[in-house]
Design brief:
Elements lengths: L3 H10 L11 H10 L1 H15 L18 H8 L5 H8 L9 H17 L22 H25 L14 H11 L1 H13 L2 H6 L5 H8 L3 H13 L3 E4 L3 E4 L1 H4 L9 H8 L1 H6 L2 H7 L3 H6 L3 H7 L1 H13 L7 H4 L6 E5 L5 H9 L4 E6 L4 H11 L5 E5 L12 E5 L7 H14 L6 E6 L9 H13 L7 H10 L2 E9 L3 E8 L3
Parallel strand pairs: 3-4, 3-6, 4-5, 6-7
Antiparallel strand pairs: 1-2, 7-9, 8-9
């Protein structure tokens, strides 16, 4: 006896219109990148807003979502409108879907998406929890709940028959297809990163933007092998970096637009992460086992020492930092810099200071960083706010900082250093402040051990690979501030999971 869920999907899939739908291109890339758990949440949200109402707006004629696999799956499973839902699934129109009916639709959508990756395989079955409508739901809701119960019981029996000690007399294991897929997606993530790095290294985003949209033209422009280009582009299209094909011509996307040469390009980030940082991560086992820098294991010297001796990598690193600074424009919105003297400690190329001074015409600034950063900072600040409002000072924040500031900034400069060194920087900023009304702003990502999100945890581990450093929790950084005679006076959330901590001198 076949699984009735799959049997129903097979029957719907034999319809000529439904058979046209496949998970490919940007839709497939979305599942690859986000995973089925996130896609399931998308399905629950979309069904709740666009299908569940008793009279959905523009039912059957709603705007498609590009790169949104749930929308494709709805058409493939005949759950795209209330008419199809009634015809193919026996759920009548004219009433709001209850919890059981929504669960049924979401399960059909997600099962179709999983089936797009591999033929249905015997799997351990987990029955979804179906919530009864608080209003009862009526006869139709009761019928749907009963039907879902029966289908899941059938699926469980089928899995039991094919499990260990099944009718074949073999002790074969059941296979969790989705878990296998998740492992494959994670372990091949490095391959995708290297494919993107290669595309940037070859300049493919700029070439395609310039109209070179065939394998032959791209091969000629880059000096690469044409068949190699073809195979790389096939993957990049599947990942959603580009659209089109050799026969129709390749086209750029919003993702490839972010890689075009220009002031805010992420191309330098891709090059740095695909070369030096990729080599550092190749020593992850050593770095984690010894809690020391993977970069130093790869290159034989600390990261910042390497930057001081390699101007090209130092420039790429600074451009990477600048490109990843999409939260800078909100800093003047969370703190009033009016009339203040702003000292940006470790200010790099001057982008944050320039953003603040541009938004606050009556403020003036001092950029403080190592000597090798001064030429780039001078160039940028001269072009943006003018050198009459800015002083550039070369030095080492572990030795001292410029005195007399009303606001001191420490933006993403502490994570590579131990607690004692960080307390020392805090103390120097405290002693250098103009008076007790001055403030210290610490802008950084902070980790949480409970309910952590992926990005801060990734950046924390990346710091171990590159500098041997770490991101701290807010509680820990607060203790270090307290040791330096400072206390938290306020906090503000910024984009990209960055937080601004506003510290004031402790007067008591």
């Amino acid at each position: 006896m076949a699984d009735e869920w799959d049997d129903r999907l097979d029957r719907i899939g034999r319809h000529p219109f439904r058979a046209k739908f496949r998970l490919r291109g940007r839709d497939r890339a979305m599942v690859d990148l986000r995973g089925i758990t996130t896609v399931r949440k998308h399905a629950e949200d979309l069904i709740g807003r666009r299908l569940a109402p008793a009279e959905p707006c523009n039912d059957g004629r709603q705007t498609p979502y590009r790169g949104y696999p749930v929308f494709v799956a709805q058409h493939a499973t005949a759950t795209c409108c209330r008419t199809c839902l009634a015809r193919w699934h026996g759920i009548p129109a004219g009433h709001a879907l209850n919890d059981a009916e929504r669960s049924y639709v979401v399960e059909m959508i997600c099962r179709w998406i999983v089936r797009q990756y591999a033929p249905p395989a015997p799997a351990a079955v987990t029955r979804p929890r179906l919530h009864r409508s608080p209003t009862g739901g009526g006869r139709e809701a009761s019928c749907v709940t009963k039907r879902v119960d029966e289908l899941w019981k059938t699926a469980a029996k089928w899995a039991d028959r094919r499990g260990p000690g099944g009718p074949d007399g073999e002790g074969s294991m059941t296979v969790d297809v989705q878990a296998t897929r998740d492992v494959v997606d994670i372990i091949t993530g490095g391959w995708r990163a290297q494919a993107l790095y290669t595309a940037v290294k070859l300049g493919l985003p700029d070439h395609i933007e310039a109209g070179r949209d065939t394998d032959a033209e791209l091969a000629k422009a880059t000096g690469a092998n044409e068949q190699g280009i073809h195979r790389l582009m096939r993957l990049l299209v599947a990942m959603g970096i580009f659209e089109g094909s050799e026969s129709t011509g390749y086209r750029g996307t919003q993702v490839s637009a972010a890689l075009l040469e220009g002031p805010q390009s992420l191309s330098d980030m891709c090059l740095l992460y695909g070369e030096e940082f990729y080599s550092a991560w190749g020593h992850a086992h050593h770095a984690i086992s010894t809690e020391s820098s993977g970069f130093e294991a790869a290159y034989g010297r600390p990261f910042y020492e390497y930057l001081g001796q390699d101007a090209a990598t130092a420039r790429r690193f600074q451009l990477t930092m600048n490109a990843a600074s999409m939260f800078f424009h909100q800093v003047p919105e969370v703190f009033d810099f009016s009339g203040k003297k702003v000292v940006d400690v470790g200010g790099g190329g001057g982008h944050l200071l320039a953003t603040i001074l541009t938004a606050t015409p009556d403020a003036e600034g001092t950029l403080f960083d190592r000597a090798h950063m001064m030429p780039k900072a001078r160039e940028h600040l001269s072009a943006t706010v003018g050198l009459d409002r800015v002083e550039l000072v070369a030095g080492d924040m572990f030795q001292g900082v410029p005195a007399g500031g009303d606001v001191y900034l420490l933006c993403r400069v502490l994570a590579g250093h131990d607690d004692e060194a960080v307390v020392g920087v805090f103390e120097r900023c405290r002693r250098a402040m103009a008076d007790d009304s001055a403030r210290l702003l610490v802008l950084d990502r902070f980790v949480e051990d409970e309910n952590s999100t992926v990005l801060p945890a990734l950046w924390d581990l990346h710091l171990l690979m590159t500098t041997g450093g770490e991101h701290r929790s807010v509680e820990r950084i607060t203790r270090l501030l307290n040791r330096a005679g400072l206390e938290i006076a306020g906090t503000a959330e910024l984009p990209m999971e960055t937080t601004a901590l506003i510290a004031a001198p402790r007067t008591a």
